[in-house]
Structures are given as structure tokens and as C-alpha cells.
Specification:
alpha+beta; FAD/NAD(P)-binding domain; Helicase, Ruva Protein, domain 3; 14 helices; 19 strands; about 25% strand; binds flavin-adenine dinucleotide
């Protein structure tokens, strides 16, 4: 077909961060671009990120160090990070008037904590570069002939383009629009897709005391994960108890590995609430505290543990809050030390895609050119964002995948072959 036979140079499917970046960049390079999004607006999931604050990226400016966070597929990101990495996305937003701030953890947010303002900048990027936006219209199928996509079928109408970008996201939080359609199309055109599973997802547990623990958050605790009584790994971070189990950054980050272990046997997590103190040291500290204390146990423990936490520990150990600390027996103290150094969580399962921040699995990166995001199977097809088989931990790493791969897909889809 001649250039003029196509309605657009580039059609991008999916108005999440990856798709918007791809569409904006392709248009900036001079291509005639359409962005198709089934919602009436872009970035429905983006609006929810970072609890509505949007953790845009992570302040790790060394790409080699950054890719270590993405596990074995991290290398795939190197080229797109060098084209459009952390520095470039920070500049992108700041040049467009959005002030950013970096928190102690390295997480970068809009200074005013408003994800909505990130989305406003993205709308402007589309508008200023003349992207045709087809919102409230769903792509229902993709047709291909040989190694080329020939057209895409919408709920209303069809479109042809020289190049196509699939940026439909994963399967998590499906009510935002990410239902995993991109995986089906990729498979249909011959791509290998690693079976999607929920990642960065809260963990469900069945301890009887969970109701009492709800809302307690613990900072800098160590989670020790056991399979059938054998320790498998541990990780330190912040967590929170919820009505169903546990959540918070460290829980989300270990969830994928916990999910793998659950397929093999019984999983328990022992939370070390005082990882800085050995069992002996903690025992000594408590002993010294209790020995000379004129306080009741409740008041004495209040100096060591957060308010709701000591109540929980007393509930679990069945110790009497009213008892004088100086009258606590050795066994009673040992029980407190034991639960502080290994609060046992009996794991049931992971919550599903409904509550997973990202999807693990997706389009195999081995079949996508990392320099261009072009499919190695279909000449006029590109992929960007979470649809690819790559994910990172919490902390802005997942949005960075979208910015970098979206930019790279847009840049290369614009120039064509
Ligand atoms: C609660 C929550 C908080 C998060 N917080 C953070 C954070 O702070 N930092 C971070 O880095 N990551 C965070 N993430 C992860 C991050 O949101 C995702 O990695 C990111 O949104 C993926 O972007 P994407 O563009 O690939 O896909 P998506 O954002 O999923 O966008 C895909 C778009 O494609 C559209 N679409 C799908 N199918 C079709 C179709 N057939 N036709 C037309 N349109 C279609 C969808 O409607 C959707 O708008 C969070 C995720 C969640 C759920």
C-alpha cells in the first residue's frame, strides 16, 4: 500500500502511560497518530497510582543499577532507558511545568502529590503534537496478513495504519480497562506470551487475631518466609495489617515469590518486629526494663512498641496488661520475645488480579527488539508497557518501564521501515 492509503502513520492502542507516551512521541516526530482508548479518558489506572499521588519513577540515574531491580528480563530495558531514562522523564514533566519531589526512599512524585496533574501534562503532550484521540471506542480485534497487521477493528469502525503499537497493559485492576486483550492479539499473531499472574499483590492470611491487628503498620520489619517449615528467604521493609491479611511495600514486593511457594506447600511468614536486636539482646532489654519498672505491663510495653502493636502482642501471648512489669516471669518475657522476633502469619493465598498492582508475565521480550520495541514476528507491530513480560518492585519502577518503552515504541513506529 502507498503511504496515502493508510488513515494514519501510527495507531496506538491503549491510553495508559505507555500508550500516551508512544502516541505523543510518534506525533512529535511528525507522524499522523491516532490513540484508541476504550475509556472516555486516558490514564484511569495512572490516576490511582501511588494512592493518587503517582510515584512517577525512582531516583536511580545509573541504568545498570536500575535494571537489576527488574530481575532477569531487566537487560531488555537498557536501550530504551538510554534513549529515555529516569533523567529524561523527570525533565519531561518539569519542562512542562510539573514540579517534582524525591522522597527519602528515592520515590519521585509530583511536588503537590496529585496524579491528576501528571495526567494533565500527558493530555497536553497529546494535544500539542496533534494526536487524534479516539476515546470511548474499544479495539475488538486485529487482522493480519503474513507478517503485517492489515487493520484493527473497533467497536465502531475500522482503522488502518502503517504501524501499530499495542499498549493495552496487563490484567490487574481490570475495572480500569486493563483486561489483557493485548495478550490475546499477540498470541494470535504468533507471539509467545508468558502466562499472566498477579504481582505486587496483598497476601491473604487466616490467623484468628487478624481482626485485632487491622490497621497496625510496622516500619523496617523483617519478613522471613518459610515453605513447609524451611526458611526460603527474607526481606526488610514496611507493612500493614488489613482485615484480610497483610499488605504494604515489603509484602507487595515478596508476593510473587510467595505465590510461587504456595504452589509447592504450606507457607508461613514470620515477622521480626525488632530485626535490629537479636533474641538475646531483646530479652536483655525487656528484662532490664521490667526489673526496675513500677509500671503496669501495658505502660511498660508502650515505651517499646507502637500503641496498637503492644495490645496485639499481649492478646497473642495472653499476658495480663494490668500485671506489674516487675512481676513478669521469665517464661512470660520469653513468650513476648518469641512473638516479637517471629510473629507468625499463616498464609492462605494471594489476592487476585483485582488487587494486584501489576501483572507478571506477558509478551515474551525475546521476540521484541529492545532497541525499537518492534515485534520480531510482525513487521509493523510494536509493544510498550505492562503488556511486555517485565515488571519491577514498588517504587516507581513500573511506570519507568512505560515511559521508556512507550517513548521508544513511538519514536520508532513514527519513522517506519
Ligand atoms: C493501585 C495501583 C497503584 C500503582 N502505583 C504505581 C506507582 O505509584 N508507581 C509505579 O511505577 N507503578 C504503579 N502501579 C503500576 C502502574 O500503574 C502500571 O504499571 C501502569 O499503569 C501500566 O501502564 P500501561 O500503559 O502499560 O497500561 P495501563 O495503565 O493498564 O493502560 C492500558 C490502557 O489500555 C486500554 N485498553 C485495554 N484494552 C483496550 C482495548 N481493547 N481497546 C482500547 N483500549 C484498551 C485500557 O483501558 C487502559 O487505559 C500501580 C498500579 C496500581 C493498580
Amino acid at each position: 500500500m502507498e503511504h496515502r492509503d493508510f488513515q494514519f502513520d501510527v495507531v496506538v492502542i491503549g491510553g495508559g502511560p505507555a500508550g500516551v507516551m508512544a502516541a505523543g512521541r510518534a506525533a512529535e516526530k511528525g507522524a499522523r497518530v491516532a490513540l484508541v482508548e476504550k475509556n472516555e479518558q486516558i490514564g484511569r489506572k495512572l490516576a490511582m497510582t501511588g494512592n493518587g499521588r503517582c510515584n512517577i519513577t525512582q531516583a536511580e540515574f545509573d541504568d545498570q543499577k536500575l535494571i537489576e531491580k527488574y530481575g532477569k528480563n531487566g537487560k531488555f530495558l537498557l536501550s530504551s532507558l538510554s534513549a529515555f531514562g529516569v533523567r529524561r522523564i523527570v525533565d519531561f514533566f518539569e519542562k512542562r511545568g510539573l514540579k517534582l519531589k524525591t522522597e527519602k526512599t528515592g520515590k519521585i512524585f509530583p511536588a503537590n502529590d496529585k496524579a491528576a496533574d501528571v495526567i494533565k501534562v500527558l493530555y497536553r503532550y497529546l494535544h500539542d503534537n496533534g494526536v487524534t484521540t479516539l476515546f470511548g471506542n474499544e479495539v475488538v480485534d486485529i487482522e493480519f496478513e503474513g507478517n503485517m497487521i492489515s487493520k484493527i477493528i473497533l467497536k465502531r469502525g475500522e482503522i488502518t495504519a502503517r504501524n501499530y503499537v499495542i499498549a493495552t497493559g496487563g490484567k490487574s485492576y481490570p475495572h480500569t480497562g486493563s483486561t489483557g486483550k493485548g495478550y490475546d492479539w499477540a498470541q494470535k499473531v504468533g507471539h509467545a506470551v508468558k502466562s499472566p499472574s498477579p504481582a505486587l499483590v496483598p497476601i491473604q492470611a487466616h490467623n484468628s487475631w487478624l481482626e485485632k491487628a487491622q490497621g497496625i503498620s510496622l516500619g523496617g520489619v523483617e519478613l522471613n518466609v518459610y515453605l513447609d517449615g524451611k526458611k526460603k528467604f527474607s526481606q526488610i521493609g514496611d507493612m500493614i495489617f488489613t482485615h484480610f491479611g497483610i499488605s504494604g511495600p515489603v509484602v507487595l514486593n515478596i508476593s510473587k515469590s510467595v505465590g510461587d511457594l504456595l504452589e509447592k506447600g504450606e507457607v508461613k511468614i514470620l515477622v521480626d518486629i525488632k530485626p535490629g536486636l537479636s533474641v538475646e539482646k531483646l530479652d536483655e532489654v525487656l528484662q532490664n526494663e521490667f526489673r526496675s519498672s513500677a509500671k503496669k505491663l501495658a505502660n511498660s510495653l508502650g515505651d517499646f512498641y507502637a500503641p496498637k502493636l503492644w495490645e496485639l502482642l499481649l492478646h497473642i501471648t495472653k499476658l495480663d496488661a494490668e500485671k506489674h512489669a516487675s512481676r513478669i516471669s521469665r517464661e512470660e518475657r520469653k513468650a513476648l520475645v518469641k512473638v516479637s522476633k517471629g510473629l507468625e502469619i499463616e498464609v492462605d493465598s494471594l489476592l487476585g488480579f483485582e488487587r494486584a498492582m501489576v501483572t507478571s508475565g506477558g509478551v515474551s521480550v525475546r521476540e521484541v527488539d529492545s532497541k525499537t520495541m518492534r515485534s520480531k514476528k510482525i513487521d509493523n507491530l510494536f509493544f510498550a508497557g505492562e503488556v511486555l513480560d517485565i515488571e519491577g518492585p514498588t517504587g516507581g519502577y513500573n511506570l519507568q518501564i512505560c515511559w521508556s518503552t512507550g517513548f521508544t515504541a513511538g519514536e520508532n513506529a513514527a519513522v517506519g521501515k
